[in-house]
Amino acid sequence: MQxxxxxxxxxxxxxxxxxxxxxxxxxxxxxxxxxFTDKGVYNDVEYQAALGAVSKSPTQSPARSISIKPDxxxxxxxxxxxxxxxxxxxxxxxxxxxxxxxSFDFPDGMAGQVYALPFVYDLKPVISRTVKESDxxxxxxxxxxxTLRSTDT
Length: 153
What we know:
This protein is of the alpha+beta class. The chain is 28% helix and 15% strand. Strand 2 (91-96) and strand 3 form a beta hairpin. The N and C termini lie far apart (77 Å).
């Protein structure tokens, strides 16, 4: 009963987003972005404490004199969410606190199980592309008989 009340309170907090989960998305990739519903911050007190912890971290260069105030995007992704997905068999690739997401490599059939977790907002495939350098910067062909000269003078 307490868990249900906590979920209801958490769902009404402005620091939590809720997804209408109808059916798991079709993902034809083993590399998947997992977007989370929250960062483990459910009220203003926890939010201020999380901001205080972020502002005390040594991310600012001592050479800089500009002070930047942290915001919600600077709060790290909740570690327990990542560990739970890893325990299910996902291999962590990277974490983005600004997206409130982490990318994983999943074994076949795991995406539906992860999507069913209460703290998962959405799943998206990791998109990648391969570009050869010659596709956007064609090289000139030279014949052996031409005289070549350096252009780095």
